[in-house]
Design a protein that fits this description.
The structure holds three protein chains of three kinds.
Chain A (H helix, E strand, L loop, with lengths): L2 E6 H11 L2 E6 L6 H10 L6 E4 L3 H14 L2 E6 L1 H17 L3 E9 L5 E5 L4 H6 L8 E3 L4 H18 L2 E7 H4 L2 E6 L22 E2 L15 H16 L2 H4 L2 E4 L7 E6 L2 H14 L5 E5 L1 E3 L3 H7 L5 E6 L4 H7 L4 E6 L8 H12 L1
Helix pairs in contact in A: 1-2, 1-6, 3-4, 10-13
Chain B lengths: L2 H4 L4 H4 L12 H18 L8 E5 L14 E4 L5 H11 L4 E7 H7 L1 H10 L4 E6 L2 E2 L5 E2 L23 H8 L3 E6 L3 H13 L4 E6 L3 H9 L4 H11 E3 L9 E8 L5 H16 L4
Parallel strand pairs in B: 1-2, 1-3, 3-4, 4-8, 7-8, 9-10
Antiparallel strand pairs in B: 5-6, 7-10
Helix pairs in contact in B: 3-8, 5-6
Chain C lengths: L6 E7 L9 H5 L6 E6 L5 E4 L11 H5 L5 E6 L3
Antiparallel strand pairs in C: 1-4, 2-3
The chains are: A alpha/beta, B alpha/beta, C alpha+beta.
């Protein structure tokens, strides 16, 4: 039986990562992710892990990839401007199939933006930030307990599918203090680390150009290149059912209107749904836990018969566009400026629709 | 195929099914041969265990130098080879980590990592293959191109003075710094051997040749061997690094000081001892 | 008794690997090599160690070859 503790989202994330076996962290100070680096610098050496403050985010992600290749689970954390710098490293990990977790504590952007205020503006960058065609797994924690558990899930997914996994959270969730449950070692599953393996008596060849299964470069052969790249893409696409997770509530009476959100905005969404239900309106609640790959099938199956979806989010309406592709009537509720959407705002919009 | 080199090649190369991508007369192939011979000599002297060898290599022609070898090879992004090597060395301080990179890769886009890896004294060994330009992309100017040189992006002459990698390394406190040319075979092989046995960061800058671009545009010769003659004319042995009209070669630094991985690991074990009440 | 080094019997040039850079031809101190009119697999005229009796076994051709195409073959002297 584990224990309960009151802690900040960043600390929960760090403790979850350490529970998952992360022993290498390289970072660079950036508001609002600096606490993650500071907690790591204190806690990692206590478990025999290594913390490095790198000279920039480019060095940070490349060091972490080197550490992962050499045999230790590795993680990096940053915010918007650093996340932009790390994109080449993310593409590197995708193409070389190195397991690594990248945490983006979103703040207002673009550019230096709003360093101390939350946003959800990086949801598309998390999916499409690096150049080239690729798939990636992105998780979005909704509370401090999920900062702990999704850190472990992210690392496990990364090992299982040999891909980088992005943990996308917001400044407000990282700085939020809540009571969480910390399981005992062995209580929550943790997958072992995978590294490139030498074969046939010779060392492994980790190549960044498109390559065949032995690592030899196939970039000049259109057929073999296509085969190599489709394999990487389908590695994720063929497993969406096993990867995707959503949290659906208040749907037992088949409401036709849903409020769908993710991360910190989903807390306001849930409060609004409860207010609407209290006032007699039939409305459901959907929270995306996996942002990418977008769980289209899962949503369609759980939201069968739904007509309208209201999507409150702290950006210019990115995920609302994605919900539209599923064929629903979507009411975007984009909010910029750095304040979370309030339950009242969502309530008022929803009531307008439901009447 | 030369049987000594063949023993160290990956299967497709050793079986004669695949050639290296180097142009005729390319310095990369020559340096690959020196590296193999250095390891072979050290192994026969019983001083080197190549089972723990990780090779990290950059992007570009020079980054392709070690690919035919049968060792663990990690290709890094352009300029980031030293960061990847640092990550590997920290996690596996017992491993031997050798970095192959070109002058543009290591000093231009990788300049920041060059500075900090040397500052930390990470125990990685760098073989900097300097052909004074960007070869893979077609012969563009690099930080090591001589001033006034003609290249594909300086058709009217290079307006920038070049960077002396060895001088920068020495001033940052690198504990082993040497520069030789590709024509000085025994010196290069000896230097690679010293590099592999050295404790801490080590840099061997090898003035190399790119007959297709450097030979034809920067130097103005039509045969690969004439680049070797060019180097014999413009280099002189010294204990101080200089890089201008004349380039000095030789060993510029060779001493020891605590390495980054030693300091980090001793700090971790100290934290562990304090935690377990061992003071 | 001092044992003499084995004499160089021949110098092989691998016709698949040789790219015709002719560093061996240019740099041999005693001009053992000449460019032949045999074309190798890469498309270049192959160098040939025609004047093997002039070879002083300095090893430069083998050391300098960028494509590990040269093998110096030694045997017992007479």
């Amino acid at each position: 039986m584990g224990r309960y503790s009151l802690m900040m989202g960043s600390e929960a994330l760090v403790r979850g990562a350490i529970y998952a076996g992360v022993r290498f962290y390289s970072g660079y100070p950036i508001t609002p992710a600096t606490e993650i680096a500071e907690y790591m610098s204190q806690l990692l050496p206590k478990v025999g892990g290594i913390f490095v403050q790198a000279e920039d985010e480019l060095a940070a992600i490349n060091m972490a990839i080197g550490a992962s290749v050499a045999g230790w689970k590795a993680m990096v954390a940053t915010s918007g401007p650093g996340f932009s710098l790390m994109q080449e490293g993310i593409g590197y990990a995708v193409n070389t199939e190195v397991p690594i977790v990248i945490v983006d504590v979103q703040r207002g952007g673009p550019s230096t933006g709003q360093p101390t205020l939350p946003s959800q503006q990086d949801v598309m960058q998390a999916r499409y930030g690096s150049h080239g065609s690729y798939e990636i797994i992105v998780l979005s924690p909704g509370n401090v307990q999920e900062m702990f558990y999704l850190a472990i899930d992210a690392m496990n997914l990364s090992e299982q599918y040999r891909t980088p996994v992005i943990l996308l959270t917001e400044e407000v969730t990282a700085h939020l203090w809540e009571k969480i449950y910390i399981p005992d070692p062995g209580e929550y599953p943790v997958l072992p680390h995978v590294t490139p393996t030498p074969q046939n008596g010779e060392g492994f060849l980790l190549e960044t150009q498109l390559h065949d299964e032995r690592g030899y470069n196939v970039a000049n052969d259109p057929e073999l290149s296509a085969k190599a790249l489709w394999r990487l893409i389908n590695k994720i696409r063929d497993n969406v059912d096993r990867i995707a997770r959503v949290d659906v509530q208040f749907n037992s009476d088949n409401p036709e209107v849903f409020i769908a959100s993710y991360g910190c905005s989903a807390r306001s969404a849930l409060a609004a749904v409860k207010m609407l239900r209290r006032d007699g309106y039939r409305v459901g609640y959907l929270r995306l836990i996996t942002l990418w790959p977008f769980p289209s099938q899962l949503i369609r199956s759980k939201l069968d018969g739904v007509h309208t979806i209201i999507v409150p989010e702290m950006n210019s309406g990115y995920m609302a566009e994605v919900f539209k592709t599923l064929g629903y009537n979507v009411i975007p509720l984009p909010k910029l400026g750095g304040e979370m959407p309030t339950p009242e705002e969502i309530y008022n919009t929803a009531r307008g629709v439901l009447e | 195929m030369n049987p000594l080199i063949q023993r160290y090649l990956r299967s497709e190369y050793a079986q004669g099914k695949r050639r290296t991508i180097f142009c005729p007369g390319c310095g990369n192939g020559i340096i690959l041969g020196y590296f193999v011979r250095a390891i072979d000599e050290l192994k026969r002297e019983g001083k080197f265990d190549d089972s723990r060898l990780y090779i990290v290599t950059g992007i570009g022609c020079s980054g392709n130098t070690p690919i035919p070898l049968k060792y663990n090879i990690v290709r890094a992004l352009h300029g980031r080879a030293l960061s990847v090597a640092t990550g590997i060395k920290l996690v596996r301080p017992d491993a031997e980590v050798v970095v192959f990179a070109g002058d543009g890769d290591l000093l231009s886009i990788g300049g920041n990592h060059f500075i900090h890896t040397i500052r930390r004294n990470v125990g990685v060994k760098v073989i900097l293959i300097n052909n004074m330009l960007y070869g893979m992309t077609g012969g563009q100017v690099a930080p090591t191109t001589p001033i006034n040189a003609i290249t594909h992006t300086t058709p009217y002459g290079n307006p920038e003075p070049p960077l002396d990698a060895c001088k920068l390394a020495v001033s940052l406190g690198a504990t082993y710094v040497a520069r030789w040319t590709v024509a000085l075979a025994r010196q290069c092989i000896q230097s690679i051997k010293e590099l592999l046995l050295h404790k801490g960061f080590g840099l061997l800058e090898c003035l190399s040749q790119c007959p297709v671009y450097q030979g034809r545009y920067v130097i103005g010769v039509d045969r690969p061997s004439k680049i070797m003659d060019y180097y014999l004319r413009i280099t002189e042995i010294s204990s101080e690094p200089r890089y201008g009209e004349k380039i000095t070669i030789g060993k510029f630094a060779d001493y020891e000081k605590p390495t980054y991985e030693e300091i980090v690991w001793s700090m971790i074990s100290k934290v562990g001892r304090v935690m377990h009440g061992e003071g | 008794m001092v044992r003499a080094k084995a004499r160089v019997v021949k110098i092989d040039v691998d016709k698949y690997l040789c790219k015709g850079c002719y560093i061996c031809v240019d740099k041999c101190p005693t001009k053992v090599f000449e460019v032949s009119n045999v074309i190798g697999d890469y498309g270049a005229f192959l160098p040939e160690a025609r004047h093997i009796e002039k070879c002083i076994d300095c090893g430069i051709c083998e050391l300098y070859c960028p494509d590990y195409a040269i093998t110096i073959v030694r045997g017992d002297g007479e």
